Amino acid sequence: MREKALPRFGRRALIGGGLGGLALSSLLLRSGHGATRAPGTDFAPKAKRAIWLFMAGGPTQFETFDYKPGLAKLYGQELPTSVRGTQRLTGMTSGQGSFPIAPSLFPFQQGGQSGAWVSDLLPWTRKMVDDLTIVKSLYTESVNHDPAMYNIHTGSQFPGKPSLGAWLSYGLGTMNENLPTYVVMTSAFKTRSFVQALMSSFWGSAFLPAQHAGVSVRSLGDPIIDIDDPPGVTSATRRTMLDAVHRMNDLAGAALGDPSVAERTAQYEQAFRMQSAVPGLMDISGESSSTLDLYGPDVTTAGTFAANCLRARRMLEQGVRFVQVYHRGWDAHVELPTSTPQQCADIDQACYGLVQDLKLRGLLDDTLVIWGGEFGRTVYCQGTLEKTNYGRDHHGRCFPMWFAGGGMKPGIVYGETDDFGYNIVSGDAHLRDMHATVLHQLGLDADALTFPYSGLNQRLVGVDATAQVIKGILA
Amino acid sequence: MGTGLSKRTLTELVCVLARAVVVVLSLGCASDHGPPEERAVAEVSVDFDRDVRPILANHCFSCHGPDAAGRQASLRLDQSSEVFAPRKNGQPVVVKGDALASLLYLRITSADNPMPPSTAHQPLTAHDIDVIRRWIDGGAAYPDRWFLIAPSRPTPPAVLHQSWVKNPIDAFVAQKLEELKLEPAPEADPRALVRRVTLALTGLPPTPEEVALFVADPSEAAYGALVDRLLAAPAYGEQRAHYWLDAARYGDTHGYHLDDYRNAWPYRDYVIGAFNAGMRFDQFTVEQLAGDLLPSATRDQKVATGFIRAAMSTNEGGSFEDEYAAIYAKDRVDTLGKTWLGLTVACAACHDHKFDPVSQAEFYALTAYFRNSTQPVLDGNAADAAPTILVGDTPTLVTEEAGTEPSAYVLERGQYDHPGKRVVARVPAALPPMPADAPNNRLGLARWLLLPEHPLTARVTANRFWSEIFGVGLVRTAHDFGSTGEAPSHPPLLDWLAVEFRESGWNVKALLRLMVTSATYRQSAVVTPDKLLADPENRYFSRAPRFRMDAEAVRDTALAASGLLVRTLGGPSVKPYQPPGIWEAVASLDSNTAVYTPDVGDALHRRSLYTFWKRTAPPAALEVFDAPTRQQAVVRRERTNTPLQALVTMNDAEYIEAARALASLALASATTTAERLDFMALRVLARPLGAEEQTLLAGTLGTLASQYDEAAGELAPWTLVASTILNLDEALNQ
Q: Do B725 and B731 contact (CB within 8 A), yes or no?
């Protein structure tokens, strides 16, 4: 009847039996148990930790990383049906009588030694293209937000599967005793239309043990729910209270003969350590002005994407395994020329600052930075196309992401789309391939990282295990 | 092993009874007892259902199982007829009694051509291989799937501990304990017992008066009267409902997209009312699955179909109606599977089930029952998306049958836009047929579940109630009784309970009464080192169940002990304290549940099952304690132990308020420090403190008083002492 304080074990382990929960606890405190490798494969981890800068809503590829100069002269022309093919469109545009091509209103320029094209909406990102691995050829089968968000978080379009971060926590274990292993932060955003909801199950553990779920670290109120002592409770009185809990539990545990009592006490002690560690984590007063300047002026405003990126760096430094920083509002069905520049301004310098900051601290080599959202957007206009105004519908057949550090090949652009930015021409990579690649860089074999549930060896990449590491982007 | 022959003979004998009951043959082979760690291997005989079928299911059935499309080498290992049928070479893959002559064994031990292939990433352990060898050498008994054979009532066994036995549950438990050479624990202290049973039946701690009453007379009759009183308390229905609402995936929002509010609470109140009224479980089943189809259906019977409407729904712009219609239907069959069938039927949405006899066509034939409703696919983000019925002035969601014959398309690979052949509603062939006179709709489906010859419903339901009382099911995988679920710890007990439950008229209160009046339940929770080794997880009930209370009970206990709890029954959901920003951080700006504004007054202190459940951001303090999101059916909650839980019970506003209220009550009601400490302990732990505890906490109080400014007065240090008591392991456990 003992509670699980740590990952549960399969039926095999239980039948084999014998190890007590406490012994297991100490064995597993630091190491995960999903990192089994097939013999003969080299899964030496390139990264110890990762951060996903999550652009929720589906950022446009046409105004960011997929430069299509040829579209300008096709302004307003019908997207050839040969390009559109027979695949499904969302219900928002499937009824449109016309699919007029909407070229980007924003110019592109090349950056760095690599000469990667980046739009003028992301000047800071362009400055660091030599640090980035830009992939233009990801795809997903989902074309609406809820299925697409579940898909890119969990590898399944429906609720009920663990998120990538939960798998990382399960597979790799924790690197610290004071902080959560998987942290989630949500950020302020400027646009005010088409803001999709997030769901706690996007960072949930589903059937994995609950301690692998992402812990929300907030910018308003307590950074972690209830981490601050209530008014009137000081660190000293808290310690007195905890000592009493500890000793009372020891008495009860001895009378019962039940070691699970000590496990509860241990969780209270960890809570106390978190209470000491987290406020320092959130306090950026010790950061130098040169560091703050990297992230841009928003960095001192709590809750901004920039402020969250800086705090994320502090967490990664202190042993948090995986951080997901959300930025919402990328769902530009209408008035894209107004909203997308705002969105880009929210995140551009902060992304630059984070990557440079990690680099300056020598952390980029073993930290994988991931940028991207759940899908891309259509080349054709949703609604009426105007010279200075247009919108784009959801598009799953190609969308961009970029990576930095963590053993990725820097300064490259991977994959190509057709002249319309509609279909992938080369380097096609399903989101599950991306998942497999992320796991691989962190030293996990996507096929071997399994958890038995409902009679199947569940995997982030699906029970069929058909995902491939995207080898072409690895250093 | 010298006793091998007798073991084999006995094993085969048992198998003749159609079902290899877990039998440890310690009676005949006492000399086999080694150190406890070795017992699992050395002493326990191989039992097919418990030991072998799970290995075959997890490692072999994927390619050699029920899924015809995925089957390799035309070999099926999930049917005994095929396992023992001669293959092309004239030999079966399993030769009874001779592992070394069995191709199955040779392949799983082959160095150069092993099964399962390495590409399957399903390697067998040395222990697995040893189990297979011993199974084959021992005669390779291969009984039919126990969970597809209707239970018949076993005779409670004669046991050595006959005087300990209070009802048949105990006979089955004692039999197992005797096999394991374990003694039951002595009866619990009356205080521990009254607290345990009150928490189990009502989700609330006993009042000091209730404790005193039982301590004064802990007789058999008094215990029976206590149980009857608890079963009659309104809190009983609330406690049962919180479990059922997990299965019903009840929430106050749509769940997808904007996740707006919906009027679902009348259904929640129906559930509470049904349990409190002692509604028969068969009626409870029929009303929720098909109340609208009953002749002259009452309003409540229609409200009951809110069970079906509790599924999530969407109004996301651009959604494909066909896609969501398929998602909804799959969810409903998944819920039916987890809740009544104990089968993972939804696994057959994309292909034939890999482990259990449910084909893909049968899965879609089940969805047909639920696709025949008038519910529009898109909910319009409305609180009252049709069809509805008025409860007072609240239109609440119900289900209505469309006038067509229930049918569905088989969706190839589960894809909504790849419809294959059309199938008419039908129940899986491996289960009993639908009675000829039953209507082939949801009403027929519900009645089919309740047939006496149905092998699953009564077992699955009795098991779930058992897990509510004992903290873990006899089948631990309460949602999966199939090939890959765990075998029952006490198969005959499960069957006895199932038959007893059905024959009692599906009487839930009677079933729970049997459980909590058993000697098994009334044991002390004290565990000995021997028991920790031989029964580390208490699967064999060698002591009382002891486990951390559910999220709701953790909070409700603090409110009740501190006198804050408001006992109003039912009504619209409430918004108690919640740390700010939890909805705001994730909600769509356009959602009408984007901003959380706590209620004021009584609504802050209602029982937790009335808390507003926004499915994309569930009540934070409950979720930390493993409350599910209510997006999908859950019949077994996780029970974790994390630092985040400690933060909630130490620091959350409602727990601080409860500690302060408890301290104030103690200060007002008692004068000496010792009396005040006991006052609080009685309300939280149902017992006064021991001498050592008194000294300890008095010392803590003194230290705290010295740490606080004198100006802070008495209440501050006493509040932290109250918080200490509320945070004890004992306070969090039942």
A: yes
Based on its alpha-carbon atoms, the radius of gyration of chain A, rounded to whole angstroms, reads 24
pLDDT at res. B44: 58
* pLDDT > 90? residue A456: no
What span, in angstroms and rounded, lies between the C-alpha atoms of A170 and A36?
Answer: 12
Instruction: Give me the pLDDT at residue A90, please.
Output: 81
Tell me the nearest-neighbour CA distance from A141 into chain B, angstroms: 11
Does residue A190 or residue B726 have the better pLDDT?
B726
Q: What are phi and psi of A13, to 5 degrees?
A: -65, -35
- Count CB neighbours of B107 within 10 A: 14
- Do the chains contact at A211 and B642, CB–CB below 8 Å? yes
From B317, which residue of chain A is nearest by alpha-carbon distance?
A92
Average pLDDT, stretch A437-447?
95
HSE-CB of B405 using CA atoms within 13 angstroms: 8
Q: Could you give the CA distance from residue B395 to residue B398 in angstroms, rounded to a whole number?
A: 9
The label of the residue with tokens 């003694």 reads: B183
The mean pLDDT of A267-285, rounded to a whole number, is 91
In this structure, the number of other CB atoms found within 10 A of the CB of residue B172 comes to 26
Query: What size, in residues, is chain A?
Result: 475
Tell me the chain A residues in contact with residue B703 when contact means C-beta distances shorter than 8 Å. Answer: 240
Q: pLDDT digits over B112-145, tens only?
A: 888 998 877 778 888 899 999 999 999 999 998 9
Query: Which residues touch B576 (CB under 8 Å, ≥6 apart)?
Result: B598, B599, B603, B604, B605, B606, B611, B619, B654
Residue written as token pair 């039940």? A258
Do residues A342 and A60 touch, judged by C-beta distance below 8 A?
A: no
pLDDT higher than threshold 50 for residue A17: no
Token match 């790849």: residue? B418
Global pTM reads 0.86
Here the tokens at position B12 are 């085969």
Is residue B562 within 8 Å of residue B721, measured between CB atoms? Answer: no
Kindly give, in sequence order, each residue whose CB lies less than 8 Å from that of residue B491, ignoring residues fewer than 6 positions away: B19, B21, B22, B49, B146
Mean pLDDT of B365-385: 96
| Inter-residue contact B302 to B291 (CB < 8 Å) | yes
Which of A320, A359, A370 has its CA nearest to residue A172? A320
Phi, psi of B733 (to 5 degrees): -105, 155
Q: Give the total residue count for chain B.
A: 734
Mean pLDDT value across chain A: 88
User: Beta strand pairing status for A108-111 and A451-453?
Assistant: unpaired
Tens of pLDDT, residue by residue over B403-454, are: 889 999 999 989 999 999 999 999 999 999 999 999 999 999 999 999 999 9
Per-residue DSSP letter, A474: B
Highest mean pLDDT: which of A11-25, A91-105, B10-24, B671-685?
A: B671-685
What are the two backbone dihedrals, phi and then psi, of residue A400, each rounded to the nearest 5 degrees? -95, 150
Query: Which residue bears the tokens 């705290």?
Result: B704
What does the block give as tokens for B440?
């082939």
Q: Do A201 and B708 touch (CB under 8 A)?
A: no
Q: For strands A108-111 and A376-381, give the pairing.
A: unpaired
The total of other beta-carbon atoms located within 10 Å of residue A265's CB is 20
Q: What is the ipTM of this complex?
A: 0.89
For A151, A254, B312, the CA distances from A374, given in Å and listed in that order, are 8, 52, 21
- Write the DSSP assignment of B342-400 as a string of letters: -S-GGGGGSSS-SSSS--HHHHHHHHHHHS-B---SB-TT-TTPSSEEEETTEEEE---
Measure the CA–CA gap between B664 and B687, rounded to whole angstroms. Answer: 19
Cβ distance of B732 and A224 shorter than 8 Å: no
Q: A residues 216-275 near B, CB within 8 Å?
A: 216, 218, 220-222, 224-230, 232-234, 236-238, 240-241, 243-245, 247-249, 251-253, 255-261, 263-265, 267-268, 270-271, 274-275
CA-to-CA dists, residue A77 to A98, A103, B587, angstroms: 9, 10, 38
